[in-house]
Amino acid sequence: MITGVGVYLPEYILDNHELSKMVDTSDEWIMTRVGIKERRILKEKGEGASFMGEKAVKQLLKKTNTLPEEVDLLICATVTPDMPFPPTANIIADKVGIRNGFQFDINAACSGFIYTLITASKFVESGQYKKVIVVGSEKMSAITDYTDRTTCPLFGDAGTAVMLEPTTEDLGMMDFIARSDGMGRHHLYMKGGGSCYPATHETVDQKMHYIYQEGQVVFKHAVSNMADVSVEIMKRNNLSAEQLAWLVPHQANLRIIDATAKRMGLDPSKVMINIERYGNTTSATIPLCLWEWEKKLKKGDDIILSAFGAGFTWGTIYLKWAYDGDKVE
Ligand code: UT7
Fold it and tell me: Which is the closest atom of ligand 1 to the Cα of 153?
């Protein structure tokens, strides 16, 4: 079960007004087509995902009264690691002083938090691990082309972390559905910087170190697949829309979120939405919502988390929230 949430948000705010001076766009277009007003950008030179992950983990340890030496495992979901290796999870653990366990990264793009939470939960359920941290940390600004109006309004930076611990109560992850389809790799990717196209002058000239996205294709798959698994998990757990306390959707496009909530028959007041202020922070969107709404969450709340991303990857988790958020300092 999740026993705490920590977040770090960079201070710098890039709003639509400033963006419209950089590329041919407008606040009106971005708000109506996507629903984003502003996003955070990490400006510190030479700092990346581990910088934000470290800060989020430190906040989490404080909130959950945990010492670094008590942590058994830390898994970091990211598509923007500090560097190709070592894993960013190792770097975060070293900075925080976590030395008694092991750490690794998971790359599942915008489904990173869902995939990683499922993986981490299994370590806890095995009975072998007592304190497991899941980090979702992304410096999307590092791979965003700020001359491309079709992608640069979409993304933002953030670091997040949640703590997982065992329980004998009927709380925590009750069910999940995880899916992927490699045909999606043709529609959303970053071609350069891997083993096929390592960095050269040519790859830089051809802008291969930036996000490439065919927006409409991704949109179509996101809407149908995110809604399908969310409805399926409701059905197979006999969850009614009335019974559900919250939907926590990945924040890529307000229209995708609305379509998913509608298919689930959910009242809009039960959907966590903060895309307007942070944009798409990839693996950080869902924990960022949980952190913002923490005070309103109650022990036993039925919650569905859902995401869709590059790969394609997608998935959903049904969980019973484990603590009363209003009692958190
Ligand atoms: O989180 C990972 C998964 N990613 C997603 O889920 C993203 C899914 N895709 C989307 O959210 C949407 O497809 C976008 C937000 C990326 C684009 O919205 P759209 O409604 O699909 O727009 P479009 O690509 O069909 O473009 C419509 C028009 C085009 O102009 P023409 O060809 O109709 O003249 C674009 O050139 O809007 C134009 N356009 C813009 N105009 C102003 C594209 N970007 C912009 C912009 N400002 N920033």
Answer: 48
Cβ 218 under 6 angstroms from ligand 1: yes
Bridge partner list, 176: 317
Q: In angstroms, what is the C-alpha Rg of the chain?
A: 19
Does domain 2-170 fall under CATH 3.40.47.10? My reply is yes
Domain 173-327 has CATH 3.40.47.10: yes
Distance in Å, CA 251 to ligand 1 centroid = 15
Which pTM does this prediction carry? Answer: 0.97
Name the nearest CA neighbour of 275 among 77, 34, 110.
34
Q: Closest ligand 1 atom to the C-alpha of 213? A: 16
Annotated catalytic residue 280: yes
Q: Which of 124, 132, 122, 117 is nearest to 72 (CA)?
A: 132
Confidence of residue 329 (pLDDT cuts 50, 70, 90): confident
With CA atoms as reference, report the closest residue to 38 among 213, 249, 278, 252. 278
Euclidean distance between CA atoms 174 and 317, whole angstroms:
8
pLDDT digit string (tens) for 102-111? 999 999 999 9
